[in-house]
């Protein structure tokens, strides 16, 4: 309904600017136009059109009289939802070029909005294009043009309208319109552009974070074979941080991965969360959940091997395990010492885990610094970028 209100609102502005002064019009034209304006203001749009028709029937009208008749007729037709009459009357005024450019733009906007509201997407595209060609910059009209293209089955054209507009908003440091982002995502999806879709999904997570957006983004990440190895548990950690451990299989899989990685305390915390939330301990997986809780409890009580002072990798691993166990201060210090000593197989993974440790400790500023230090464009860098978004929004 917002589009219809836009069309009516634009027409109301045009009516308000029309001065039907009797001394500049012949009485035969002025009287029905004045009646039409009064009926319009009373929201009796069809009756207003009938009065406009009386003025239109007057023979020998001057150009000025014809323009005022067309202006009143176009406004009443838009409000009445009569696209044919509106396009005829406003089209004549636009074609004549005697109206100020700003007024012509309002007419084009009204016609595009009405055409879209009535499902005439081809005509909505036509008027939307003409509006854009005048240099008008209303972002809502740009979105309307993109929606018209999309509904007409041309997702590629819709993307070409939206992408520059969205990029411009982000370059200016502003959040793009949520509807524009969602439409852009649909455009990429329609075109089978998975990379484009994922990029917009990440922008939705950045500007409008919700568990649903996070869930879809992380589900796609889990489906990527690159994350199925050493970073699978880290993806689950991000799912947990964004409230996206939803199913019993999520809790069970994360807990099992944590046990296999030697993080028994983390596994027990995950299992307990699953039981406390009512996801585990019921249904066909009830017995499996109980067995997993026993296994996680046993793993959490196992003594951890002491890190060798000169072994950077062992210090990082032990420190991260301590951070996951709730011993944040000691664990963070060990990770930082291990990073300083070097000799790590993957320093970026260690920096990622340092960021997670700071996040769990509630030190978000230091977490962001640690995530910023993750270099390259591999899996650790992707996760660090997403963890930064989560850190800022949770």
Automatic annotation (TrEMBL):
Which key words tag this protein in UniProt? Signal
Against InterPro entries, the record matches this protein to: TPR-like_helical_dom_sf
Q: Which residues form a coiled coil?
A: none
Per the UniProt entry, the signal peptide is 1-21
Instruction: Work out whether the entry's keyword set contains Signal.
Output: yes
**Keyword Isomerase (UniProt):** no
Q: What is this protein called?
A: Tetratricopeptide repeat-containing protein
């Amino acid at each position: 309904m917002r589009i219809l209100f836009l069309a009516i609102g634009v027409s109301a502005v045009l009516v308000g600017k029309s001065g039907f002064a009797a001394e500049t019009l012949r009485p035969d034209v002025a009287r029905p136009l004045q009646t039409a304006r009064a009926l319009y203001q009373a929201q009796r749009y069809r009756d207003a059109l009938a009065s406009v028709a009386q003025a239109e029937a007057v023979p020998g009208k001057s150009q000025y009289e014809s323009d005022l008749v067309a202006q009143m007729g176009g406004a009443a037709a838009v409000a009445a939802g009569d696209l044919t009459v509106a396009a005829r009357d406003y089209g004549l005024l636009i074609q004549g070029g005697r109206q100020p450019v700003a007024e012509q733009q309002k007419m084009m906007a009204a016609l595009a909005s009405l055409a879209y509201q009535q499902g005439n997407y081809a005509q909505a595209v036509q008027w939307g294009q003409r509006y854009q060609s005048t240099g008008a910059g209303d972002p809502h009209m740009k979105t309307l043009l993109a929606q018209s293209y999309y509904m007409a089955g041309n997702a590629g054209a819709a993307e070409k309208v939206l992408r520059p507009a969205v990029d411009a908003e982000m370059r200016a440091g502003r959040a793009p319109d949520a509807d524009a982002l969602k439409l852009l995502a649909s455009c990429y999806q329609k075109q089978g552009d998975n990379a484009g879709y994922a990029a917009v999904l990440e922008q939705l997570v950045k500007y409008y974070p919700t568990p649903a957006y996070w869930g879809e983004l992380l589900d796609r990440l889990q489906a990527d074979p690159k994350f199925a190895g050493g970073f699978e548990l880290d993806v689950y950690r991000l799912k947990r941080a964004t409230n996206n451990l939803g199913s019993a299989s999520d809790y069970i899989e994360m807990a099992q991965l944590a046990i296999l990685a030697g993080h028994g305390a983390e596994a027990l915390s995950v299992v307990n969360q699953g039981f406390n939330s009512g996801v585990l301990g019921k249904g066909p997986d009830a017995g499996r959940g109980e067995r997993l809780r026993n296994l996680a409890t046993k793993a959490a009580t196992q003594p951890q091997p002491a890190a060798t002072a000169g072994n950077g990798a062992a210090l990082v691993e032990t420190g991260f395990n301590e951070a996951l166990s709730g011993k944040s201060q000691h664990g963070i210090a060990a990770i930082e010492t291990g990073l300083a000593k070097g000799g790590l197989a993957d320093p970026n993974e260690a920096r990622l885990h340092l960021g997670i440790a700071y996040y769990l400790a509630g030190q978000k500023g230091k977490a962001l610094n640690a995530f910023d230090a993750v270099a390259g464009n591999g899996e650790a860098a992707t996760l660090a970028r997403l963890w930064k978004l989560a850190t800022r929004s949770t």
